[in-house]
Amino acid sequence: MVSSKTQHKSKRQQKLEQKQSLSKSFIHSTQTPFRVAERNFKSRLPPPNFDNVIDFYNIDGSNDEIKSKVVKIELKIELGEDDAEKENMFGDCNELKGEKEFVKGERRIAYIVKDLPGFIFIPNPFTPKAQKNIIKRCLRDFARYPNKSNLDTHYVLPKEGLWNLHERIINGELNGSNSRCVIPLKAFVTERESFYEKESDIKQEITQKECPQELLIEKDYREKEEKEEKAEPLPSSGVPILSPSQLIKKLRWITLGYQYHWPTKTYHLDKRLPFPRDIESLTTSVVKSINGIKFCTKETNEDNEKQYFVNDYDHEKWKPEAGVVNYYQLKDNIMAHVDKSEINMEAPLISFSFGHTCIFLIGGPTREIAPIALYLRSGDISIMCGPCRTNFHGVPRILEGTLPKYLEPNYGDDPEWKIYGDFMSSSRINVNVRQVF
Ligand SMILES: O=C(O)CCC(=O)C(=O)O
User: Fold this and answer.
1) Is 166 in the pocket of ligand 1 (CB under 6 A)?
2) pLDDT tens-digit map of 297-307
3) Ligand 1 atom closest to Cα of 428?
4) Contacts for 135 with CB less than 8 Å, ≥ 6 apart
5) Greatest alpha-carbon span in the chain
6) Which of 369, 367, 362 lies closest to 384, judged by CA?
7) Where do the domains of the chain lie, and which CATH numbers do they carry?
8) CA–CA dist 212, 403 (Å, integer)
């Protein structure tokens, strides 16, 4: 028999639960549809409902709602084709694509979603080797001075790059007692000169930029910018002191080209670095492949006519000027946001995924519009152009256990890959590229 004390307690418990459930349903009723979707995918217990997530690799096996929304289209060029003379950033299609062979025409396939004019999905056109090259670029070459990263606020990062230091320690070239095996905190560095030198180095590189006509177009913005000094967040003495190998897991973003000022969500127009040529060539091929793409978004409008979306952004005008590389650990996410810092909102935003699969949510111009959810796997390319360029989007979940076999540390015959593969065992990398002007 339950004692009166327990009975009493359980009544209290019941009341508490009732209160909690009431406040939960109140929160739900006041949450935007975008927030509700984010909560679903972030939830660990109960697990998310994945029923309506679009899997572009399995449209035939999807439910009728998804089948009715998704349309397969053909790109204007086969990706990698126009790069024949240069280094092909997508990789040689005579190599295997993961575990299987490339099928002729496979690099011309893309998908659109009828309710989302301006969103284009290109299923992984890369070979494993090409993916590995880009991942190496993101960790070894892009995550270092002079590109800014989230770590710069609090840590004095080695000029050779955190990754290179991490690699030398793992390879036994530096032993653990070496003073370089601990990354100093900026808050404790009294000699700040070296840091300020870095800033002037950046300016130096900008003045050496070889694009005079562009500099003219941007002159007005630049002059305004130079008058407004943007305050940087202050370094904290409360962040942990870590080794390079620990700190590399705390890397969340770096910026390419025009450096981004996160507190004001604007570009530092006086801090422009040359955009990496290989990523430029990659995005130029993508922009070329979608130039002139036209598809029906509504069978009938109020005048009983078909409605179309045409992407007419001329690839000749495409100039990748800024990029963000996002480094996600498995528990990370990015909340709903719109990328609207660019002056040119006509140009597409091109986004590449590598490593673990994520859930990508993309909605409308407000959070009141329920987003659609889709899987982004390693190598997939997503494009936001036209009306979709100003839509809310986010990544609420990285899916554990989804790293492709070919990215695992010991897979393949590249001995250098092991350390990158170890990092990728708990990561997803996203490279997204924009035109600012
Ligand atoms: O990680 C992604 O796929 C999206 C990243 C993103 O939305 C952003 O950086 O603005």
Assistant:
1) no
2) 888 777 878 88
3) 1
4) 354, 355, 407, 420, 424, 429
5) 87
6) 362
7) 48-150+251-434 (2.60.120.590)
8) 44
